[in-house]
């Protein structure tokens, strides 16, 4: 999973979770995307949405999806995860001797690269795939700068970005070079494109490998990828974090007082597991099997003998409230329960829910069962059955 939030961002998340979500007020908002006003410059043409194909990083389960962007002049290909859990753009560079397994951007080959000269370190909250964070084993050294960035043929000059100048070996398995943050406050290339008239929303079709055709649509959504209507819910947060208020969770159709606690849940396309407070994780597992137990070798994780997994129903219904005030569920099916064997015991399989106090978050394992629309302009999230 590589939860793509970094330490400072992570602190913001924790703080925002301390504030209780207010009741959602039903409201009617037009379903059309924001269209750039024709007003000032009659010559300015609104930019049109673009589809960007995504590849699936498949390690026994679908973990993460990534696509191509180009950086620099002339353009160099860079592969990134489009991560709704972070805000900035960072990727491997030729300045990095420990990035050998990734495509590396060479700043010396770009006429438009501007070296910002400022270095920094980021430490991730969760690891690549479902592997755990132990101390600072997921850490990047960065150098800031600006350059031209193109996504799906839409190009912006002078986009703030970070070159990776060193990374810990835990990143070696990544088939992608970096991360493009897609948080609820548009930044970087997306903010620049919106300023030039691109509608301020994007759609994600994060499919299982067996389905294929995963896709990001920037500046709109792809009606051909889903059937039926989109159901929208208002953003519960007011910052960069995509999050929705949830009045209750049910597992295999059952709930209890712990699961009926009102909570705010983050939507992070850069994370594959789901994270809940320890009490909530324990309550959820109690409805699946008492044999699912924490694995002390990897704090926060739980596991069960791999051969028992196929017999276990584990349907997780998370209830949200639409902008019309109606409850709707987003459901993680039983097929997501196992995320594969643990490194310390090949017959013990890790289960989907991690305990993580102070953070409640869903990622790829939920998103891959829906078409999702991330509407920055109207501060709402939309979902449709696929
Ligand atoms: C990214 O670009 C490379 C080289 O052009 C291509 O082989 C690959 O299929 C592209 N990946 C995706 C996900 O489009
Ligand atoms: C690099 O970061 C420094 C310090 O935050 C900032 O002042 C500078 O404008 C940045 N430069 C570029 C090119 O992004
Ligand atoms: C949501 O799931 C719960 C638990 O399975 C169920 O009781 C409820 O009817 C569902 N709500 C909707 C709107 O489908
Ligand atoms: C590995 O996990 C299996 C299944 O839970 C368990 O029976 C076995 O004792 C474990 N082996 C070790 C060495 O911990």
Automatic annotation (TrEMBL):
Active site per UniProt: 83, 268
Leader sequence segment: 1-21
A GO biological-process term: proteolysis
Domain Peptidase A1 positions: 65-384
Pfam families given in the database record: Asp
GO molecular function, one term: aspartic-type endopeptidase activity
CDD domains: pepsin_like
PROSITE patterns per the UniProt record, alphabetical: PEPTIDASE_A1
Domain of life (superkingdom): Eukaryota
Keywords from the UniProt entry: Hydrolase, Protease, Signal
Family: Belongs to the peptidase A1 family.
Protein name in UniProt: Acid protease
Provenance organism: Rhodocollybia butyracea
């Amino acid at each position: 999973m590589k939860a793509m939030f970094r330490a400072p961002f992570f602190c913001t998340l924790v703080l925002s979770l301390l504030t209780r979500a207010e009741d959602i007020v039903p409201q009617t908002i037009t379903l059309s995307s924001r269209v750039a006003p024709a007003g000032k410059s009659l010559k300015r043409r609104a930019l049109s949405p673009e589809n960007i194909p995504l590849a699936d990083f498949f390690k026994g389960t679908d973990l993460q999806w990534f696509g191509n962007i180009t950086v620099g002049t002339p353009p160099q290909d860079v592969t990134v995860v489009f991560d709704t859990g972070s805000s900035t753009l960072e990727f491997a560079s030729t300045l990095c001797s420990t990035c050998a397994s990734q495509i590396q951007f060479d700043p010396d080959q770009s006429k438009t690269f501007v070296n910002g000269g400022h270095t920094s370190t980021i430490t991730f909250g969760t690891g690549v795939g479902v592997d755990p964070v132990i101390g600072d084993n997921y850490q990047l050294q960065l150098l800031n700068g600006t350059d031209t960035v193109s996504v799906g043929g839409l190009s912006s000059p002078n986009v703030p970005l970070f070159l990776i100048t060193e990374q810990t070996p835990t990143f070696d398995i990544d088939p992608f070079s970096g991360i493009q943050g897609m948080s609820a406050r548009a930044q970087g290339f997306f903010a620049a494109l919106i300023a030039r008239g691109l509608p301020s929303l994007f759609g994600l079709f994060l499919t299982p490998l067996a389905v294929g055709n995963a896709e990001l649509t920037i500046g709109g959504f792809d009606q051909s990828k889903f059937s039926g209507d989109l159901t929208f819910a208002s953003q519960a947060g007011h910052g960069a974090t995509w999050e929705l208020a949830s009045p209750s969770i049910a597992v295999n159709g059952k709930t209890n007082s712990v699961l009926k606690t009102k909570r705010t849940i983050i939507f992070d396309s850069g994370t594959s597991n789901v994270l809940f407070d320890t009490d909530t994780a324990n309550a959820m597992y109690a409805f699946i099997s008492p044999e699912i137990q924490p694995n002390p070798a990897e704090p926060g994780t739980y596991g069960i003998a791999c051969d028992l997994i196929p017999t276990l129903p584990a349907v997780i219904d998370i209830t949200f409230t639409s902008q019309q005030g109606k409850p709707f569920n987003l459901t993680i099916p039983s097929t997501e329960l196992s995320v594969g064997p643990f490194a310390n015991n090949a017959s013990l399989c890790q289960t989907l829910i991690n305990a993580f106090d102070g953070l409640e978050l869903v990622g790829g394992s939920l998103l891959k069962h829906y078409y999702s629309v991330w509407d920055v302009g109207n501060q709402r999230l939309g979902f449709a059955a696929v």
